Amino acid sequence: MKPNPLCGYRLLAHATPVIGLVCLLMSNPTTAQDAASAERHYLQGHAAFRKGQARAAEKHYLLALRADKNHVESYRGLSELYLLQRRYDEALEMLDRTLSEHSNDAALWANRGLVLRDAGRLAEARIAYDKAAALAPEDPEILEKVAGFYGFTGETERAELYSEARRRVLEEGAAETGRPLP
Questions:
Q1: DSSP assignment string, 11-53
Q2: What is the per-residue pLDDT for 96?
Q3: For 54-112, how does the pLDDT look when each residue is reduced to its tens digit (9 = 90+)?
Q4: The predicted structure's pLDDT at residue 89
Q5: What structural domains does the chain harbor?
Q6: Which one, of 63, 57, 49, 56, lies nearest residue 21 by Cα?
Q7: How far apart are alpha carbons 6 and 92 in whole angstroms?
Q8: CA distance 41 to 37
């Protein structure tokens, strides 16, 4: 069985010219046809990503961005792909490009924190995670990621605060809907 490049056992043999991609994306506004093409390529990229086909995933995400330079999901997909390949600078470039247009997206900030954490840049990761929590103080998934970061860094008191906030949000949601906690 050959190693899965998405799991970090093997990096891609080629380097993607991300700077060229950014230049390419400075093109005309997106048409409806371009948006449909971008979505189609994104879905093909996502399917390839899930199958561990790194080159195909990257190709389709880049084609989606060629069709629609603002396709957030493709930037997110590329950043996740590059993170798993330990291509931290490229992952950050994709996230920063997206955050320049979507600065209030807590999930993007949490993803940025994860990339920075894995790159060993903990001070910057802390800022990104805190921004995510500030943007989505009622989102249990974001709170869980922030708590996990502080647990990772050994800041148990902060980790417990975010874990408790997450529990409170889940309990309030369960009380409002009458459904049990997950």
A1: --SS---HHHHHHHTSSPPPPHHHHHHHHHHHHHHHHHHHTT-
A2: 95
A3: 999 999 999 999 999 889 999 999 999 999 999 999 999 999 999 998 999 999 999 99
A4: 97
A5: 18-102 (1.25.40.10), 109-175 (1.25.40.10)
A6: 63
A7: 17
A8: 6
- The model's pLDDT over 141-182, given as tens digits with 9 standing for 90+, comes to 999 999 999 999 999 999 999 999 999 999 988 777 666 655
In whole angstroms, what is the distance from residue 122 CA to residue 114 CA? 9
List C-alpha distances in Å: 176 to 136, 168, 171, 180.
Answer: 19, 12, 9, 10
- Which run of H or E residues covers position 136? none
pTM passes above 0.90: no
Residues 6+ apart with CB under 8 A from 43: none
State the virtual CA torsion across 29, 73, 54, 92 in degrees, nearest 10: 90
Residues 6+ apart with CB under 8 A from 14: 55
What confidence score (pLDDT) does residue 25 get? 45
What are the tokens at 78? 């590329």
CA atoms of 100 and 103, how far apart (whole Å): 6
Question: Helix (H, G, I), strand (E, B), or coil: what is residue 135?
Answer: helix
